[in-house]
Specification:
By secondary structure, the protein is an alpha/beta fold. Helix content is about 40%, strand content about 25%. β6, α6 and β7 form a beta-alpha-beta unit. α3 crosses α7. The longest helix has 23 residues. The chain is elongated, with a radius of gyration of 20 Å.
């Protein structure tokens, strides 16, 4: 998944893409899990458990701002970050062609992550974009900006997290400047390929380099909580729960 910067020098983009392909190949040889299995297993882990693991590793700035919320509380998503960067812009030339190229670049098991440069006016995501992304095998979208066609997106059963809803399309108001480049939302830097997980408690970003170990540790937390909850339902006093290794 090579970076694409709109208007960039083609030779420079090719050089960067080649380096990224080499890096991805090297990493692939070290991975025990496929992207699909990694995403499927993260899909059922609460963001709270993932957060606890990352905190234990000293990573305390991995959660997107609480203003980025699911369209519906029961929405869950886990996938590989496909990053998109843009900002307010009135130019129209080749805008639709650029959108089409971006959509065709989305890989399977991706989650589209939009850094909008704090846009407060436009919808960066809607029904037709959802349909196109679904055909690519995309798992969801995280938009630090706006969404429209909300009712249609809900009918498509596609997880979307956003900051606001508006009928404003982005044509003539906002446009992309790059995709598959590092982006920043709130205090979190998201690299292409990072694991993105969202649920009712918000969205958390897991650096790809530690994704598998984070997954295993979060699954262990989830398993341990079975015994912890049983102690509480059995009437064990909180102090004794802690003495037995439990927590609150």
């Amino acid at each position: 998944m090579s970076p694409h910067t709109l208007g960039a020098d083609p030779a420079h983009v090719t050089e960067r893409a080649g380096s990224d392909r080499m890096s991805s190949t090297q990493q692939a040889g070290d991975k025990a899990l496929s992207d699909r299995e990694l995403c499927d297993r993260f899909q059922v882990i609460p963001t709270a458990a993932i957060n606890d693991v990352l905190r234990s590793k000293g990573l305390i700035q991995q959660v997107l701002p609480p203003t980025v919320e699911a369209l519906q509380p029961n929405m869950r998503v886990a996938g590989i970050a496909f990053t998109i960067k843009g900002s307010k812009n009135l130019q129209l030339a080749n805008e639709m062609e650029e959108r089409a190229a971006m959509l065709e670049a989305i890989p399977q098991d991706a989650v589209c992550v939009w850094d909008t440069s704090n846009d407060d006016e436009s919808a960066q995501w809607g029904e037709v974009m959802t349909m196109a992304a679904q055909r690519q095998g995309c798992r969801g979208a995280i938009v630090d900006g706006g969404v429209r066609d909300t009712d249609k997106i809900l009918e498509l059963d596609f997880p979307v997290f956003c900051r606001y809803r508006t009928s404003n399309g982005m044509l003539g108001r906002f446009r992309m400047s790059a995709w598959q480049v590092p982006v920043r939302i709130g205090q979190v830097t998201i690299q292409p390929g990072d694991i993105t997980v969202g649920d009712i408690d918000g969205v958390i970003i897991v650096p790809r380099a530690i994704a598998e170990e984070t997954l295993v540790e979060a699954e262990q937390i989830q398993f341990d909580e079975i015994s912890l909850k049983k102690m509480i339902t059995d009437g064990v006093a909180p102090r004794e729960v802690v003495e037995r290794g439990g927590y609150f």
